Automatic annotation (TrEMBL):
Name of the protein in question: Integrase catalytic domain-containing protein
PROSITE patterns, A to Z: INTEGRASE
Biological process according to GO: DNA integration
PANTHER family documented for this protein: TRANSPOSASE INSF FOR INSERTION SEQUENCE IS3B-RELATED, TRANSPOSASE INSO FOR INSERTION SEQUENCE ELEMENT IS911B-RELATED
């Protein structure tokens, strides 16, 4: 096909160049930046299911995770709501001020509903470059961990069964997963150490 020039035309877009990836998306403090992403899996009785998640860019803690039958903008907000309640202790206007949310350019994340709710919470939107998944690499890496340790090795009959398993995985991961760049401390331990240091300083 290639020799006869019969391949479909592909628009690869223009490259962003090296400046697109200068610096790092890792942060030094928890709750400075979260990454959010979506993946899918199949259930035996209800078919396709959408999975949404949010991950802290410092501790790599999964602050929220959710499964739903349909991958709508409303379902995409659920892990953010979970994370705000968990990390900031409340849910309301400007409660998460100072937090930045990294996301891709999926229709759920660029929707008016999604952007207005995170703005109301005080969260700044930080979309990654189009066709540059590295910009959302923290959340993308967590998706791989989730697939390798749960989604690819276990079967789920219903979306509700999947949702409960995801919450259980989140708790186990946060409590027991050792993070190399934090001297093999768990995500929950990194958060606890940082929060204790803040309380002592105050």
């Amino acid at each position: 096909m290639r020799e006869n020039k019969l391949l479909a035309v592909r628009n690869l877009g223009r490259p962003h160049g090296p400046k697109a990836h200068d610096g790092t998306i890792k942060t030094e403090r928890v709750d400075e930046m979260w990454g959010t992403d979506m993946t899918t899996t199949m259930t035996a009785r209800e078919g396709n299911a959408s999975i949404f998640l949010a991950v802290d860019h410092c501790s790599l803690e999964c602050v929220g995770i959710h499964a739903a039958r349909y991958g709508t903008r409303f379902e995409a907000l659920e892990p953010i709501r979970q994370g705000v309640r968990h990390s900031f202790g409340a849910f309301g206007p400007a409660v998460a001020e100072g937090l930045t949310l990294r996301h891709d350019n999926g229709s759920q994340y660029v929707s008016k509903v999604f952007q207005e709710e995170i703005s109301c919470l005080g969260i700044q939107s930080s979309p990654s470059f189009v066709r540059e998944p590295q910009g959302n690499g923290i959340a993308e890496r967590f998706v791989r961990t989730l697939k390798e340790n749960l989604l690819w090795i276990r079967r789920f009959d219903t979306v509700e069964e999947l949702r409960l398993a995801l919450l259980e995985f989140k708790d186990t991961y946060n409590r027991e997963w050792n993070i190399g760049r934090h001297d093999y401390k768990t995500p929950s331990a990194v958060r606890a150490i940082q929060k204790e240091a803040v309380n002592i300083a105050v």
